[in-house]
Write a structure and sequence with these properties.
- With 659 residues, the chain is an alpha/beta fold.
- It contains 30 helices and 9 strands.
- The strands form 2 sheets. A 7-stranded mixed beta sheet has the order 2-1-7-3-6-5-4, sandwiched between helices. The protein has a two-stranded antiparallel ribbon with strand order 8-9.
- Helix 17 packs across helix 18.
- It is elongated, with a radius of gyration of 31 Å.
- The two termini are 41 Å apart.
Length: 659
């Protein structure tokens, strides 16, 4: 579950219900309460959240909505737990409620059974809202469900998911952290005039670091009130470790609530909690947890969800921590065998990523793991399966690069970069691309000269993506020097081709063609040193590069002829949708007939869409809109382009003129 989701649990399986703001969240509960009133049944809602996430305020807002819809009615608020989290006896709760129903103390029965009977009699036919705060056990709630008060509402808040209440027709709501826009609004409101003295970018980062935790946001704001000068040093400390947020005097209520939840775990549950906190990345699957813990722990993970120490995203099948809860877990001294766990996890992620990477491209790769995967006999996933896996896991795989170095596995660190390259390249995730390769290159320099050769080549492509031709050239030349020294023919060919692309980017088209020709000679001279399938693919890519250079020169006829030779290979090869689309983009621009060019762009857009490449898809629709002879079709294509550019935050959305 990502930020901005509320989980509503009934008697059936959990399901995620998205919301945009608190008003929509309240609306979900309001509609449920209205449906209960139509059935002449009391409204029953249990909100499950860790301390400070706003369950009390949500309950108060639900009451206000109910009062506005139905008119004034008594509001009873009962505290169900002590300060240290112990459940108050049922007798105490019943006495509090009966006093709220205006029963004099002297008339209260002395026994639990008599108190419960008195509550049912006195509540019959009445309209009221009862809030039971911090319920620890279902047994505290069940006697307080009114049996003959269809206009009553019982709201329960708890640190745990009280699933047994679903059998009593309670709506169970898991309350996560605030979505980013709401978190920022709360931070600004809590800071008051001090907010104007803090840089906007710093405020955004501070809100993000607080992880959408309402109480934490208010407490951090209190720490900064009237002294904006300490905001930057505080953010710098938190960047180093989220634990800094738990060390402030003002945030001790949050730290104490996390500790209270953790201290309530059994030894076995605490061990699982600590181990899964070590998993790299923002979220994880039950399978990854099994690797970290050494066995199937799915049921235990769901218990941690119920204890408000984890969240679960039903739609994606992934668990995730609030950042502060995870930091608390990592700080526990009992986190045993940390290095061993990390080594096991990063090597598992490498094997899984390598298997999927093989489905994304027919390129050559350095690294023992790729040969092992190819020879393992396990089926390679389809391209679509591989893309879906990387879409969910790439952040975790990227985080594994640094963790592999921490676990003294430099060989794993740089091979992870090899496995990540194609997916990051396809999507243009240049920040992660450059950072993982910075770490990976340092690891390869200590472990493998051939690994350095491939990673320098891959990082050069990242510099090309961000428009830094000189850094790209430096990386390709460094990689080429190693390839020449090792007589690695595929490395020699690839770097020569990439240097040609740098020349073409700098409009040195004659130099680019010369490099491409030199690259093809290297393929010819390599003979059996380059596998036949690789050699054919390399020649097809070189035809595509020549075609792009011809376009730059304005020689459309040569571009069409060259790219058609590339398509002879890519059209016949499964798993090369992206390169096929790139060829169609050349045809779209170079085709003599405008309609034929527009249709080529349409084909490219559909191929990019199949790979989930929205920015590339937008470029194709933009090209179609610029060439289509039918004004209506052209406008529709440009509208598609503008919508996709806007979706990915590309400024080209503003440049599209729909006339």
């Amino acid at each position: 579950m990502r930020e901005g989701a509320v989980v509503v649990m009934g008697a059936g399986p959990r399901r995620a219900v998205p919301f945009l703001d608190r008003a929509e969240q309240r609306g979900t509960i309001g509609r449920y309460l209205a449906s209960r009133r139509e059935l002449d049944l009391p409204g029953l809602v249990c909100v499950h959240a860790s301390a400070g996430l706003g369950s009390y305020s949500l309950a108060a807002e639900v009451y206000e909505d109910y009062r506005r819809a139905e008119g004034d009615c008594p509001y009873l608020e009962v505290q169900a737990a002590t300060a240290d989290g112990e459940a108050l006896p049922l007798e105490d709760l019943l006495r509090q409620v009966l006093r709220g129903l205006e029963v004099p103390e002297r008339e209260l029965p002395s026994k639990d059974a008599d108190l419960a009977q008195a509550y049912q009699l006195l509540s019959a036919g009445r309209r009221f809202v009862l809030l039971l705060k911090d319920v620890v056990d279902v047994a505290q709630v069940e006697p307080l469900i009114p049996k003959a008060a269809p206009s009553a509402v019982v709201l329960v808040t708890s640190r745990r998911a009280l699933r047994r209440l679903a059998a009593s027709n309670f709506m169970l709501v898991q309350l996560p952290q605030l979505p980013a826009p709401e978190a920022r609004e709360l931070l600004l409101a809590s800071l008051g005039p001090t907010a104007a003295e803090i840089d906007d970018a710093l405020l955004d980062e501070l809100g993000e670091l607080c992880g959408g935790h309402p109480l934490l946001i208010r407490l951090v704001a209190a720490h900064l009130l009237g002294r904006a000068r300490v905001a930057e040093p505080l953010v710098n400390r938190i960047r180093q470790s989220r634990a800094a947020l738990l060390e402030l005097d003002v945030t001790q209520p949050v730290a104490s609530s996390i500790k209270l939840a953790y201290d309530g775990l059994t030894t076995e549950f605490a061990r699982v909690f600590r181990r899964v906190a070590l998993l790299p990345g923002p979220d994880f699957t039950a399978e990854a947890a099994e690797v970290a813990c050494g066995g199937d722990v799915t049921e235990m993970l769901d218990e941690l969800v119920d204890a408000s120490l984890l969240y679960y995203d039903d739609a994606r099948g992934r668990y995730f921590f609030h950042a502060l809860v995870r930091e608390h877990a990592k700080l526990q001294e009992e986190t045993e065998d940390r290095a061993e766990i990390l080594e096991r996890v990063v090597t598992w992620y490498l094997a899984e990523a390598a298997r999927r990477d093989l489905a994304l491209s027919g390129r050559w790769r350095i690294g023992d793991v790729f040969a092992e995967v190819e020879n393992s006999g396990r089926p390679v996933p389809t391209r679509d399966e591989a893309l879906a896996w990387f879409e969910n896991e790439w952040r975790s795989v990227a985080a594994c690069v640094a963790e592999a170095v921490n676990a003294s596995r430099n060989d794993v660190a740089w091979q992870l970069c090899v496995a990540l390259f194609k997916f990051l390249h396809m999507h243009g995730y240049t920040t992660a691309w450059l950072e993982t390769h910075r770490i990976g290159i340092e690891a390869a320099e200590l472990d493998s000269e051939a690994g350095f050769m491939q990673l320098a080549n891959q990082r050069g492509a990242a510099w090309m993506e961000v428009g830094d031709g000189e850094k790209a050239r430096a990386d390709f030349e460094a990689s080429l020097a190693v390839a020449l020294r090792l007589r690695h023919h595929m490395g020699m060919q690839s770097n020569t081709e990439w240097l040609g692309k740098v020349d073409a980017k700098q409009r040195k088209y004659a130099d680019a063609h010369r490099r491409y020709d030199e690259s093809e000679r290297m393929v010819d001279e390599a003979g059996a040193n380059i596998p036949p399938g690789q050699a054919v693919r390399m020649r097809a890519l070189l035809h595509l590069q020549h075609a792009r250079a011809y376009l730059g020169e304005g020689n459309d006829a040569a571009a069409v002829a060259s790219v058609r030779r590339a398509l002879e290979f890519f059209d016949a090869t499964a798993g090369e949708r992206e390169n096929t689309a790139k060829c169609q983009m050349v045809l779209g621009e170079a085709a003599e007939d405008a309609l034929a060019g527009a249709e080529a762009y349409r084909t490219a857009a559909e191929l990019f869409r199949a790979d989930g490449l929205k920015r590339r898809q937008a470029e194709a629709w933009h090209g179609m809109g610029s060439r289509h002879p039918d004004p209506q079709a052209a406008r529709e294509a440009l509208e598609q382009a503008r919508a996709l550019y806007a979706e990915v935050g590309d400024p080209r959305a503003e440049e599209i003129d729909l006339g």
